């Protein structure tokens, strides 16, 4: 299973996030004067292998950048709304989840001179759901022996004495 495909599919299912992904793709292909370029409100995705010691095998880090126009007074609210949609999209669980997601960090908003936008970056840990159930730690049993005393069978437990089975 490709974690990247599953996470992308969850994001692309959202009616707000899907066009923002498409705007980023068009922006990368855009040529000509800036007025012909798409609206500067888009989402970009980046992937790296999760090399943290605590990360499950096969984990990936998803870095999501949300860009908005610096000239719109509603930009901070729009950034928050998009980040909420992203959180909702990535944390949705169905009847048979195949990935786990957890938001590790979200940056403060800053200016991005490459695109002339305000940007907030969010980093997510994406991991496969374990296929084997975790094994419980072995139970340490108290040593015992079956012994017979003057009144019949019983259990002899060190430090406790005889336990009657009657």
Architecture blueprint of SSEs:
Elements: H1 3-12, H2 17-29, E1 42-49, E2 60-68, H3 75-91, E3 99-106, E4 110-112, E5 117-128, E6 145-149, E7 152-157, E8 161-164
Antiparallel strand pairs: 1-2, 2-5, 3-5, 4-5, 6-7, 7-8
Shape: elongated
Look at the structure and give the CATH class of the largest domain: Alpha Beta
Q: What is the number of independent domains? A: 2
Secondary-structure element pattern, one letter each: HHEEHEEEEEE
What summary fits the major beta sheet?
A: 5 strands, antiparallel
Look at the helices and sheets and give the structural class.
alpha+beta
How large, in whole angstroms, is the Cα Rg?
A: 28 Å
Write the CATH fold name of the largest domain.
STM4215-like
Mean pLDDT, rounded to whole units?
81
SS summary, helix count: 3
How far apart the termini lie comes to: 57 Å
Q: Low-confidence stretches at least 5 residues in length (pLDDT < 50)?
A: none
Provide the β-strand percentage band: 25-35%
Tell me roughly what share of residues is in helical segments. 10-25%
The total beta strand count reads 8
Under the CATH scheme, the architecture of the largest domain is 2-Layer Sandwich
């Amino acid at each position: 299973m490709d974690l990247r495909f599953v996470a992308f599919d969850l994001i692309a299912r959202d009616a707000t996030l899907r066009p923002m992904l498409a705007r980023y793709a068009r922006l990368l292909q855009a040529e000509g004067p800036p007025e012909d370029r798409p609206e500067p409100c888009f989402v970009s995705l980046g992937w790296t292998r999760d090399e943290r010691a605590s990360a499950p095998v096969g984990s990936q880090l998803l870095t999501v950048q949300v860009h908005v126009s610096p000239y719109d007074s509603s930009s901070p609210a729009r950034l928050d709304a998009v980040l909420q949609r992203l959180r909702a999209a990535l944390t949705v669980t169905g009847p048979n989840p195949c990935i786990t997601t957890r938001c590790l960090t979200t940056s403060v908003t800053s200016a991005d001179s490459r695109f002339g936008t305000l940007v907030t970056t969010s980093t997510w840990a994406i991991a496969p759901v374990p296929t084997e159930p975790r094994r419980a730690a072995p139970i340490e049993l108290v040593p015992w022996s079956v012994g017979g005393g003057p009144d019949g069978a019983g259990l002899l437990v060190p430090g406790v004495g005889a336990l009657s089975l009657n």
